[in-house]
Design a protein that fits this description.
By secondary structure, the protein is an alpha/beta fold. The chain contains eleven helices and twelve strands. The chain starts with 7 loop residues before the first helix and ends in a 20-residue tail after the last helix.
Length: 352
Amino acid sequence: MFAKATGPRIVLAALCATVLICATACSGDGSGAAPEGEAKSVSSRFLSIGTAPPGGAFFVVGGALSEVLNAHPGEMGWQITAEATKGTQENLRRLESGELDFALANAAITYFAVRGEEGWEKPFGVQAVMTLAPNVALFIAPKKGRVATIADLRGKRVVLGPAGAGFEYFLRPILAAHGLTYADLSPLNATQSGAVDLLADGSAAAAFLGGAIPTASITQASSSQEITYVPFESGAVEQLVAEYPFFDRATIPAGTYRGQDGDFAGMNVGSMHLVTAASVSEELVYQVTRTIYENRAEVVEKHPAGKAINPKVAVRNTGVEFHPGAVRFYREIGLWPEATASEPAPDPAVGE
C-alpha cells in the first residue's frame, strides 16, 4: 500500500508534474533543441541571414533583404537580423550547424560544398532559395605592363582575392581551362580596394576583380591609370559553361569602364544566391521566398542587386538543388518547369 499524499506532498507533486510537462512540450528529448532530423519550426520568430564583412555587396544586400522581410512580417511575425560574417564558407558551415537560418553565398562555392568536393569534408545539406545578382569578374592589368592574355599571367604576381574568401573555387577551373594552375602564378591576397593599390604601385602585375556591373574597384583602377581588360579565351569559356552550371557568359557593355571601347565578353563566375539548410521547414521557406519576390521593388530601392529578383534570374540553375518551399512558390506563380521538386530549375540566360 502506498501512503496517501497530503499537504505539502500534494503541492510538490503538482509542481514536479508541471515542470515535466513544460519540459516535454519545449523539447522532445528534454535538451531544449528540436529532435534530430526535425525541420526547423515555422513558429520560430527570430531568424538570421548570414552576409559577409562590411564593405562588400553581400553585407548591403543581406541588410536590404532583412529590412524588406521585417517590413512585411505577415502572419509569422518574424524578426530577421542580417549578421556580418566572413562570407560564403562560414555561412555554409553555420547553416549546416543551425547557427544561421538563411545566408547569402557565392554559387560556385555552394556547388562544391553540397557535393563534398574540393576540400569540403562532406556534402553539406544546403539548398537554394533564390538566385540573385551575377558576379561578373575578370583579370585587369596596367596597360604599361606585360599582361595582355591570361597565358601572360604565368610567373607574375597576381591578386587572387582576399585570403579565405573562396576565390579558388572559381579561379582554379578558370586557370585550368586556360592551361594554368595556381602554382604557375605568384598569388597575392588582398581585398578589391587593396588590389587596386597593389596595381597602382607596381606590386602586382594583374588582379582578378568583379561583382555587380559596374564594379567599384575596376572603376577606381581605370580612373587612375590605363588598364588592359584581359580577355577570356572563347574556347575556355565554352568549356567552363558546359562543365559547370554556375559559370555563365556575361557581356560588359562598351564604356562601362574608362578605356573600354567595345563590349567585353566576360563571365558570371558564380552568382550571389540566397540559401538555407535543407532541414528548414517548407512553410517558412515558402513564406520568405514569397515575401522577397512580391516586394522585390523595395529591395531595388535599397540596392541595385534587387533587379535580379525577376522571372528570368530568380530560378536560374547554378547546380544547387532548390528548397521545396521555394519551388512551391515558383510553381504557384508559373516560374518553375513541370518537374519534380528535386530537379533543378531551367537555365535562362543571365547577364546579357
